[in-house]
């Protein structure tokens, strides 16, 4: 059988973020395994996905579980689930389903519904070779996402499938990286036209490749009116899950910051930049005075523009400069498609960071290629004595994830990550986690490598350390690093201050924190009530000795 699923939309989903919205995505599971994961729709309780995919089946007695989550950087919050018995579907007909979401552990009665179309039909015998079929769709091949592909191989690739069309405008000759089709398989094309496919875990399929860099210069605020004196002002910039915070300024009608920020614009993330002006009084009392939004898709590329945007609902305007510049240095690929292993790509990078091109783009300091080869003797995080390890690479504010190797203490990732370098004094931090299903991942170890200490082109084994990097953890990780940079740009960047960002990433609503705070209020109420009752008994002379003693102590 062939089951075709069209995930349409969700309605009235539950709130999981403190800002009153959620970032929902959907997982489709069968026999305990996730076979499809949708894209993330940011800040929307009525998301629209319109995604279609197909799955071959042998047994219709199974149940399919559909689970909705709120996207977070470390752990995803559960938003409800529904199930479908495949034997209940009508053959050769589109079954339009409205699936109510439910969570037995939640107090919320209505968690919203998912609208899904499912059609079940007999599968042709000629189509049994593949594992997952795509519905008719377009895969756009980007210059930063495919390796070298000859014209003949490219044309044969287009002609191979009637279900999948390849759009390339304008036609590209030299391509670098990896093409990802968005389901469970990734195909890597080499110069000889051979293909290599690899199953990807959920973590790898997350939107983590950014295509543009947003540069913001916060200038000042104008026309602000205050009813009282005191307090400090700061500005927050939010783009998807990235949150940046300015320095605090004294509460005046025209505060000036003159700070610079750099944010990444991802392929599937929101293109709406949210700007908020906050007032801070005391240590913990913070109040949002006004907000404004900028649609980055309407901003011309590589052009710096001055924005004077009115704040809503309060009076006043914010003044800042903004530029959206394309970024082609980010990629995640396999060893067969390492960017610097391609002679033409290496030559292009060497020319890009040559001294004669120093003044072309001063913010583009360098290019880092990281080959994550393997880890050995990791901690066993699961009850079966194994782990499901994956890596998180962090350089400055940038972050990339590897795929997960299941049930192994000696995983081999053999993946290549390419990152732009903005400061050669940064430290590359590689953290190994254990994937724990829908729960938060378990920490296994961490390695930190200063960029200036890199041994170029050599495979180096680094011992894994604890979270604070103070002591050794169990196991080691083998990396091969290569850094290209322009020394003049790097020297100029040294004298500029580091960018600031919130310490917490996209804070979430926590039921545990709420119950803790309610318990504290209850204890405080009981204490005050007992004190008042004691004072009342003294005045009513319920105990003569106690009342006399209380008045003697008072006087």
From TrEMBL:
<feature type="domain" description="C2">
    <location>
        <begin position="1"/>
        <end position="99"/>
    </location>
</feature>
<dbReference type="GO" id="GO:0046928">
    <property type="term" value="P:regulation of neurotransmitter secretion"/>
</dbReference>
<dbReference type="InterPro" id="IPR000008">
    <property type="entry name" value="C2_dom"/>
</dbReference>
<keyword id="KW-0812">Transmembrane</keyword>
<dbReference type="Pfam" id="PF00168">
    <property type="entry name" value="C2"/>
</dbReference>
<keyword id="KW-0677">Repeat</keyword>
<dbReference type="InterPro" id="IPR035892">
    <property type="entry name" value="C2_domain_sf"/>
</dbReference>
<keyword id="KW-0479">Metal-binding</keyword>
<protein>
    <recommendedName>
        <fullName>C2 domain-containing protein</fullName>
    </recommendedName>
</protein>
<comment type="similarity">
    <text>Belongs to the MCTP family.</text>
</comment>
<dbReference type="GO" id="GO:0005509">
    <property type="term" value="F:calcium ion binding"/>
</dbReference>
<keyword id="KW-0106">Calcium</keyword>
<keyword id="KW-1133">Transmembrane helix</keyword>
<dbReference type="GO" id="GO:0030672">
    <property type="term" value="C:synaptic vesicle membrane"/>
</dbReference>
<feature type="domain" description="C2">
    <location>
        <begin position="194"/>
        <end position="309"/>
    </location>
</feature>
<keyword id="KW-0472">Membrane</keyword>
<feature type="domain" description="C2">
    <location>
        <begin position="351"/>
        <end position="464"/>
    </location>
</feature>
């Amino acid at each position: 059988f062939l089951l075709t699923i069209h995930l349409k939309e969700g309605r009235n989903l539950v709130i999981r973020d403190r800002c009153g919205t959620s970032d929902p995505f959907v997982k489709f599971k069968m026999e305990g395994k996730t076979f499809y994961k949708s894209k993330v729709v940011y800040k929307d309780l009525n998301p629209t996905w319109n995604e279609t995919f197909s799955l071959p089946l042998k047994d219709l007695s199974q149940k399919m579980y559909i689970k909705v989550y709120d996207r977070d950087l470390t752990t995803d919050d559960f938003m409800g689930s529904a199930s479908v018995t495949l034997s209940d579907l009508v053959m050769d007909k589109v079954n339009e389903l409205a699936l109510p979401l439910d969570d037995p552990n939640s107090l919320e009665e209505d968690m919203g519904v998912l609208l899904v179309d499912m059609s079940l039909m007999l599968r042709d015998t000629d189509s049994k070779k593949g594992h997952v079929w795509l519905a008719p769709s377009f895969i756009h091949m980007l210059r930063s996402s495919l390796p070298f592909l000859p014209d003949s191989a490219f044309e044969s690739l287009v002609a191979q499938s009637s279900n999948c069309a390849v759009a390339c405008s304008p036609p590209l000759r030299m391509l670098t990286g990896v093409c990802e089709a968005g389901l469970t398989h990734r195909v890597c094309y080499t110069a000889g036209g051979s293909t290599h496919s690899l199953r990807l875990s959920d973590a790898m399929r997350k939107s983590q490749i950014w295509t543009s860099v947003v540069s913001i210069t916060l200038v000042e605020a104008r026309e602000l009116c205050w009813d009282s004196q005191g307090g400090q002002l700061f500005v927050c910039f939010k783009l998807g899950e990235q949150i940046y915070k300015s320095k605090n300024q004294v509460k005046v009608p025209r505060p000036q910051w003159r700070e610079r920020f750099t944010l990444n614009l991802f392929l599937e993330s929101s293109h709406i930049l949210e700007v908020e002006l906050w007032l801070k009084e005391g240590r913990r009392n913070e109040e949002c005075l006004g907000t404004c939004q900028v649609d980055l898709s309407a901003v011309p590329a590589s052009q710096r523009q001055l924005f004077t945007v009115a704040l809503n609902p309060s009076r006043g305007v914010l003044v800042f400069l903004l530029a959206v510049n394309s970024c082609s240095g980010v990629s995640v690929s396999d060893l067969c498609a390492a960017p610097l292993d391609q002679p033409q790509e290496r030559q292009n990078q060497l020319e890009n960071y040559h001294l004669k091109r120093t003044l072309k783009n001063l913010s583009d300091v360098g290019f880092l290629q990281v080959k994550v080869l393997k880890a050995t003797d990791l901690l066993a995080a699961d009850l079966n004595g194994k782990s499901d390890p994956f890596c998180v690479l962090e350089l400055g504010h940038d972050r990339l994830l590897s795929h997960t190797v299941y049930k192994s203490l000696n995983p081999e990732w053999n993946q290549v990550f390419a990152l732009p370098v903005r400061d050669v004094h940064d430290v590359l931090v590689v953290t190994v986690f254990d994937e724990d299903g829908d729960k938060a991942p378990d920490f296994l170890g961490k390695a930190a490598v200063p960029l200036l200490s890199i041994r170029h082109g050599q495979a180096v084994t680094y011992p894994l350390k604890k979270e604070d990097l103070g002591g050794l953890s169990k196991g080691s990780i083998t990396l091969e690093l290569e850094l290209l940079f322009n020394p003049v740009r790097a020297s100029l960047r040294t004298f500029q201050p580091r960018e600031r960002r919130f310490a917490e990433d996209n804070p979430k609503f926590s039921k545990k924190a709420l119950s803790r705070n309610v318990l504290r209020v209850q204890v405080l109420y009981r204490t005050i009530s007992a004190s008042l009752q004691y004072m009342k008994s003294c005045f009513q002379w319920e105990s003569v000795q106690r009342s006399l003693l209380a008045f003697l102590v008072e006087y």
